Amino acid sequence: MSGPKVTIAFPTYRARPALFLPALEAALAQTFTDREVIVVDDGSDDEVLRAAAERGATVHRNAERQGLAGNWNRCVELARGELVNVAHQDDLMAPTFLARAVAALDAAPRAGFAHTAWRSVDETGAPTGERWEHLELDHLADFVRDGRDYFQRIVTLHTPVCCPTAVYRRAALLGVGGFDRAYGFAADLDLFLRITLDHDVAYVHEVLYAYRRHAGSTTSQHTLAQMNAELLRAKRDAVDLAARRGLLPPAAVARLRAAVAREGLKKARKVAFDAPAAALREVRNAARLRPLTLASENGVVAVTRAAWAMVRQAAGLPPGSRSARRPKRGPPPPVQAS
C-alpha cells in the first residue's frame, strides 16, 4: 500500500498539553485528508503522548535524546508522505493550511517547498500584531520564485519563511542532507538556504498559521547574541557553499558577503554592552568577509561599546548601556494656558 500524500510531523519535547493538544487537533482537522499525523517525541510525559494517540496521531518515542535538529530529521525519516510539514508543538494551523500548500506545490513542480503567510499570537492565543513577511513589499500575493533569487533575498534581508508554515518535498529535503544538527536555533534558516540553491519556492499569501510567542518556546531559550551568531553563521556558510559550487556569479557572491558583514556589524552593535565577547567575534567575522566595513559607523560603535563593556566587567562594574548613561525622556510637560 502506498503512503499518504502528506505527513504532518510533530517533533515534541516536554510538550505542554494546554498548547500541544490544540495544535495536534488543528492538524487532525485539516480539510486535506490524504495525510498522516505523527508525533516524534524527544522527552514528554506519558500522559500527553497517550492523549495524542487517543486523538488519532501515530506516536513514536526516541530511544535517546536527539535534540532539536536531530528530532526534526527523525520526523522526516519516519514520514511516509511525499510532502512533509514539520509542525511546532505549540502553534495552530488553519483548516485549509495543508490544502493550500499542497495545491501550490502541485502547481510548481520545481519548488522544493511552499510556505504561507502567518500571524503571531501570545500564549493565550491573542494576536501580538506581528506579521513578519507582510512587512516586505515582495510578499503581497501568491508566487513561485526562482530559488537562487530567493536565496539572495534571504541572505541580504531576513528569511520571510516562518518555519512551521513550510511544506517540503521530502525528496528535496533529503537531497540536501536534512537539518544540520550543528545548529541549535537556526537549523531552519540553514535548510531554507540550502534548498533554495537547488529548488524554487512557492508562497501562499493567506494567513494560515498562528505562530505562538511565549516564555517556554525554543526561541525564548536563546539570548539575542546567540540567535544572531547562528543566523549569521548560517548565512556565511550558505554563501560559501554557493561559491564552492559555482552557483552564483563572483560579483553576486561578493555582494552577499558584504551584506552579511554589514548585518553582522549592525547586530554586534546591538549586543556589545551585554555580550561584548560575542560582539567582537561578529566584528572579526565581518572583517574576514569585507574588511572595509570595519570603518563604518556600526563597526566603530560596536568595537567601542564592546571595549567599554569589557573594561567595566574587569573593574567589577555592571555593563554600561546607552539607557543607563542617558536619563529616560518622559512625556513633554503640559502646555500652560496663558
Question: How many independent structural domains?
Answer: 2
Distance between the termini: 87 Å
> What is the annotated CATH architecture of the largest domain?
Alpha-Beta Complex
Q: In percent, how much strand structure appears in the residues?
A: 15-25%
Mean pLDDT: 90
- Return the structural class: alpha/beta
The total of helices stands at 12
Q: What pattern of helices and strands is seen along the backbone?
A: EHEHEHEEHEEHEHHEHHHHH
The biggest sheet amounts to: 9 strands, mixed
Assigned CATH class of the largest domain? Alpha Beta
Q: What percentage of residues falls in helices of 4 or more residues? A: 40-55%
CATH superfamily name of the largest domain? Spore Coat Polysaccharide Biosynthesis Protein SpsA, Chain A
Q: What is the name of the CATH topology of the largest domain?
A: Spore Coat Polysaccharide Biosynthesis Protein SpsA, Chain A
